[in-house]
C-alpha cells in the first residue's frame, strides 16, 4: 500500500473510530483534553507504522489498543510520583486486565455508553451553545478544526480557540464523565437535542 493510500485509510478509520477512542480514554484519565491528545498520539503511531507494516485487519481495535496503552503509560507516570513502585505495578496490572474486556465490548458496540457520556460532556450547559456544537463536531463527529470553521464561516484560529476554551471550562467545572442522573436528565437531554438540531440544520 502506498503512503497516500495508507493516509486515506488512516483518515477513514479515524473518522469512524475517534469518538469511541476519545470517549474511552476520557473515562480512563478523566480529562477530555488529555484524552484527545492521547488519541492523537495513537493516530500519529498509525501514520508512522501502517505504511511499513500494512493496515491491520481490525484498524479500529489497533487504534484503541495503542491509545489505551498511551493512557496507561500516562497514568503510570502520574502515579509514580505519589506511590511506591511496587504498589504502582500491582495497580497498573489490575487496570490493564480490567480494560481488556472493555476493549472487546467497545469493538462489539458501534455506539457504546462511553460515546453517549462524551456527547453529554460536549453538550454540557456550562458551555455556550456555539462551544457545545463545535466541541461535539470535533470530538463526537470527528471533524477537523478546519472543517468546522468552514461550516461556521469563521476563521480557523477563532474556532480553535473556541474549542480550547470549551475544554478548559469543562476541566475547571470538573464535569463528570457520566450520563446525567434522572433528576437532571431532561434538562441535559434538551441541551443535547439542541446541538443535534443545529448540526443537522
TrEMBL record:
Entry keyword set: DNA-binding, Sigma factor, Transcription, Transcription regulation
Domain RNA polymerase sigma-70 region: 20-80
Boundaries of every RNA polymerase sigma factor 70 region 4 type domain copy: 119-170
GO biological process: DNA-templated transcription initiation
Coiled-coil blocks: none
Highest taxon listed in the record's lineage: Bacteria
InterPro entries from the UniProt entry: RNA_pol_sigma-70_dom, RNA_pol_sigma70_ECF_CS, RNA_pol_sigma70_r2, RNA_pol_sigma70_r4_t2, RNA_pol_sigma_r2, RNA_pol_sigma_r3/r4-like, WH-like_DNA-bd_sf
Keyword DNA-binding appears in the UniProt entry: yes
Record flagged with keyword Ubl conjugation: no
GO terms assigned for molecular function: DNA binding; sigma factor activity
Protein family according to the UniProt entry: Belongs to the sigma-70 factor family. ECF subfamily.
This protein's name: RNA polymerase sigma factor
Organism: Thermalbibacter longus
